[in-house]
Design goal:
endonuclease, alpha+beta, Endonuclease/exonuclease/phosphatase family protein, Deoxyribonuclease I, Chain A, six-stranded mixed beta sheet, about 30% strand, 6 helices, nine-stranded mixed beta sheet
Length: about 350
């Protein structure tokens, strides 16, 4: 099953499925016993169908209201708390939530398909694609006696929930800027690569592309710029000329909050040269905080929107804290309101 010679799996893939193809316990055990070299990783990744798939599921029960669209981007740090996370999205009137770092069938989050469950709570449909197949088993924040000791699916990735009609999803797998197989953090050995998931959405008769993205946390300035350029090239190749909203965790490392003018972080200027806007759709403020999983990322601005073909406004940051004080993620939710220009 895992002896197929291949190169690293990068590019665009658009196989739409109702549920991602899973592997069994025997296959997971074989993956954990693979030799510690890139050829073994690349062969295994190339042989696993889920890395080429986008799951689409659920139904829209609460359609988006007419008028301006409220869109969220949120790194949910595995999504240990789906119910209050969905409630926080609902309280903001979000019609499209672009999500990153969401688990699907992992022991640490009680085997839940967190994106699908939140979508159902919101009355949304959902899309989901795999970033990594997690080989290591991490304990949950809260013990659950009925939680199987191994992963049921082992998927960690990006997704979206939507109150809008949606079609033609695709996953964009980035060239590697780091190695999470040979050089994993303790307890995080994994197969896969950074990615984005996008689809065509329709609002009031106008199509646009919505894209949830997660750039490499261990890349340098040039590496992030390469991944961003790869992303925008892929969107243009698939959906040329449509309005676009990209949202997610870009793992920027500028010294100051609101570092759009930091010349080292060239992904901003690279996108602006292609007609994308950053300034109207982001605040200059930190988007991180300590959480139950981690000590946080300091006062950094990691999470951003980037838009083309929209009029953006009402950018804001919503603390990722439930009413009972539970910290839902080490990233806060970012929000923006988008309208189509009169000529659209």
């Amino acid at each position: 099953m895992f002896d197929i010679a291949t190169t690293p799996l990068t590019g665009c893939f658009s196989q739409q499925v109702s549920a991602l193809t899973t592997i069994g316990a025997e296959a997971m055990a074989r993956l954990r016993s693979l030799p510690a070299d890139r050829a073994a990783h690349d062969a295994a990744m190339g042989a696993l169908a889920a890395f080429r798939q986008v799951e689409m599921g659920g139904q829209v029960a609460r359609p988006a209201p007419p008028g301006p669209l409220t869109i969220a981007a949120w790194n949910l740090e595995r999504c240990a708390w789906p119910e209050p996370s969905a409630a926080l999205l609902a309280a903001q009137g979000v019609s499209l939530a672009l999500l990153s770092e969401v688990d699907n069938g992992l022991h640490r989050t009680h085997q839940r398909h967190t994106t699908a469950e939140m979508a159902a709570m919101l009355g949304h449909a959902h899309g989901y694609a795999v970033e990594f197949l997690e080989l290591a088993i991490m304990p949950p924040l809260v013990a659950c006696p009925d939680n199987p000791p191994d992963h049921l699916r082992g998927f960690h990735g990006n997704g979206f929930t939507t109150a809008l009609p949606c079609r033609d999803p695709f996953v964009i797998r980035f060239p590697d800027e780091s190695d999470w197989y040979l050089d994993a953090k303790p307890g995080q050995r994994r197969i896969g690569n950074r990615m984005a998931v996008a689809a065509t959405f329709t609002h009031e008769g106008q199509d646009f592309v919505g894209c949830a993205v997660h750039l490499e946390s261990r890349a340098d300035f040039a590496g992030r710029a390469r991944q961003m350029a790869f992303l925008l090239d892929a969107i243009e190749a698939r959906r040329s000329g449509l309005p676009v909203v990209v949202g997610g965790d870009l793992n920027t490392a500028v010294e100051a909050v609101g570092g759009l003018d930091d010349p080292r972080e060239t992904l901003f200027a690279g996108a602006e040269a292609r007609g994308y806007d950053w300034r109207a759709c982001n605040l200059a403020a930190p988007t991180t905080r300590p959480s139950g999983w981690s000590g946080g990322c300091g006062t950094r601005q990691l999470d951003w929107f980037c838009t083309r073909g929209f009029e953006a406004g009402a950018a804001r940051i919503v603390p990722s804290v439930a009413p009972d004080g539970t910290v839902l993620s080490d990233h806060d939710m970012i929000l923006v309101t988008l309208t189509f220009p009169p000529s659209a």
